[in-house]
Prior knowledge:
Blueprint: H1 4-24, E1 35-44, E2 47-61, E3 67-78, E4 89-93, H2 102-109, E5 112-115, E6 128-131, E7 141-146, E8 154-155, H3 167-184, E9 192-198, H4 199-214, E10 221-227, H5 242-257, H6 268-289, H7 295-309, H8 313-318, H9 325-331, E11 338-340, E12 348-350, H10 363-383, H11 422-431, E13 436-442, H12 450-458, H13 464-467, E14 470-475, H14 485-502
Amino acid sequence: MPSFTKILVFIVSCFSFVIIHAQDKPVDTIAKPEKSVTRHSIKIDGKPVNYTATAGTLLLKNEKDEAIAVFGYTAYTKDGETDLTKRPVTFSYNGGPGSSSMWLHMGIIGPRRIVVNDPNFNAPPPYKLEDNNFSILDVTDIVMIDPVGTGFSQATGKAKNKDFWGVDQDCKSVSQFIKQYVTDNDRWNSPKYLLGESYGTMRSAAVVNYLQQNMGMAMNGVVLVSNVLELRSLTFKQGDDISYMFYIPSYAAVAWYHNKLANKPANLEAFLKEVRQFASGDYAAALVKGDLLPAADKDRIIDKLNQYTGISKEYWKKADLRINIMQFNQELLRNEHQTVGRLDSRYKGFNQNLLSENANYDPQDAAISPPFVAAFMNYYFTELKFPKNPNYKVSAGENAGFDWDWKHSKNEGWGPSPTNTAVDLAQAMTENPNLRILVMNGYFDLATPFYASEYTFDHMGLEPALKANVKFTYYEAGHMMYIHEPSAKAFKKDVGEFIGGTGK
């Protein structure tokens, strides 16, 4: 008889064989969509709006009718609208890339809004959530979208999350979601809009063209919140001075706000007009000359830079006229032992390393993230009654292996090119000359500087009749201008009038 040890080894081997081969067998891994439908009422500008909220996930399928992802979304539809051809629908998302839509959702777009102690740090919970009088729900239905890897959106079936993490991959999947939602909810003949923030603007430029070119769906308008369509404008690459030029007006605005100018102008807009002219004129010309710039001319430029930004002449001289965003954030208030925010430079926080060249955190992000996350989670699981699940991802960075593919098919050519979806938007506007664009900019936004946004549209090669379809608005706030209550009021007015004027 075999020994007990041999029998035990044989049993364990057989058990392991069964487990291994069971895992090799095809398994049905298709996630099931979920949905929670609740009904609510709100007053916007004193008028009651009854609405239905649908919090859920949609099972997304590809061209082969194969399930590839569950897409998380929250839809708000106004009750009593019988003619959907007269009721707009707006698809909205944040940026990142890799951000959920929580920020726009709870900051300005949805019917409930988190109140933060702008522009200061917030105390620990409880936080205040209130009816959002600045929501655009009175003029348009709303669909907040969480791209794959964020919220409850995830790949399913044979697909993997990484299949969706890239400029073109993301564009296609978001477009597929929009088409499927429109079909499922009979919205093909409704006026339709895209509203994205930050990287969401880069996404919108690609999506509006993709929908038009590949799915026969034309948009009425696109709202670009804190716009960036050309990645080159933000990168501060050595030998490429264009980012430095774009940031000078924003540095000037921030210095103006923090009273760091020796002779502070009374009018911010007039001041920034002057700084724009300097940035694109004498400053740009000086940067182009590089090492050939005469010493006297360099000193003259440094005098102007000190006058406009509040940064010392010595610092500008050591920096060779070139200061990037993280250096500026750390230097402006260094003597006060503080650093300013990147997303919203009205915010300032303690600087624990006065010798550091670069800011090592963003005070605005640190100040508002806990209130936003806490308020959203509580709202989603209690008021919207979505089944409790701790796996909601505010950022795709919470997933292992998150990495973004920046290649874009529209930018193909000899050698690598910085991502640029302005070419997509130009094509969409050319082939749909009724497409309207609203570009919303925060003066104190150092993440996506307003002057870079202006430059992009000035270099898209649009015919004058098409350029007339673009409107710029400005706010004395930052990247998320809507956390500043006066700007939130203006945001609501500007977007409401834009949709009201283009949906007819």
